[in-house]
Model the fold of this input.
Amino acid sequence: MVLVRIFINGYGNIGRRLASALSVDKEIQFVGVGKYTIDDKVKEALDNHYNVFVPKEMIVAFKDKGLGVTGTVQEAVSQSDLVIDAAMEGGGYDNKKKLYELMKKPAIFQGGEDRHGEHAVADMIHNSRVNYSKASGKTYVIQGSCNVSGMGRVMQPLIEKFGNRIKRYDVELIRRWADLEDTKSVKDSIEWDRNPHHQDDVKDFIPGANLYVDAFKVPSRMMHLHQMFIRFSDRAPTKDEILECFRNEFGVAIIGSAKGTGDIRKKAHELGFAHGDTNMVHIHQDILRVQDDIVKIGYSDDQTGMVIPENHLLLQSMVFKRPREEALKRTDNLFHISEKRKKLEEEFN
Ligand SMILES: NC(=O)c1ccc[n+]([C@@H]2O[C@H](COP(=O)([O-])OP(=O)(O)OC[C@H]3O[C@@H](n4cnc5c(N)ncnc54)[C@H](OP(=O)(O)O)[C@@H]3O)[C@@H](O)[C@H]2O)c1
Done:
């Protein structure tokens, strides 16, 4: 079997999760991770036996600290068949211009990058539930952010079942302030986003959606909660009809007894899920309401875990041009999504 050589450029919240999954995928030759700052995460990467690549001008500084780096970021890119860029929001654009384009290397970018405008990095946003096949053979693709991935995962099954009976979607997006691993403090305030990117991002893969998103950041580190209001042209379907749409959906759990997002994150840690991630959205059936022509679905979205299997699916489309069903099986084997879903549904029944 010819292995595909993959380099993960960036080792933050997303990069380190991608590294722990892809480094054990048997059809990947894991080149290593890119690191830009000397901190305790370098040691973590080395302890995990990853090759660490750093900017050329920092090689000496890393080595002076006794950190055994393998080479430069440039060398890592040149040794790879595909780069997964996991730079901080907006950092992917420079990497594309200075490295990937020059060296003719395909790349996956994360959801913090621009799809439009002068810093656009790709001409499509991937959502495995909606446009997996469109990424096949592409050179540059953005993996939608956690919220955008979650919205696609909830909207598409509804569209397939109810079609143009759905008139409009409104989403109130309640976002965590920081991830659990972030060192920044959580501010005691509720902040609004004057220009949320999510509705345009979702429309990139569901162009016909009449979708309006408002986003609020709250003092929490535990997941995101979306309250999606779906307006129907006639009387709304029943609660059971709505839930039925998600019974066999990959990466969607239907749970009942959680009181909040923190319960789910804590349970994921207790159950020993890697990084404390569930990698999915969780529909809270206890707050699913049908009122006249409106269905209100509240679901939590595992911000850090959600996009990791999505990246794995995307690379299978881009590099292996694999049918979606086969790719889902491989991703499920690597991330145990079905097993995690079952456990969560049992724990919160
Ligand atoms: N966190 C989430 O929940 C989440 C969810 C979905 C999508 N995303 C998206 O994923 C991307 C990464 O987010 P994150 O949360 O992982 O950020 P993060 O934790 O702040 O990590 C960013 C990483 O970028 C590295 N970096 C610095 N300069 C770089 C360069 N020139 N090229 C490549 N990497 C560089 C940093 O390395 P050093 O530490 O060595 O300086 C750091 O490890 C963003 O686009 C974000 O919007 C994040």
Q: What stands out?
A: The chain has twelve helices and 16 strands. The CA atoms of residues 253 and 306 lie 13 Å apart. The chain has a mean pLDDT of 97.
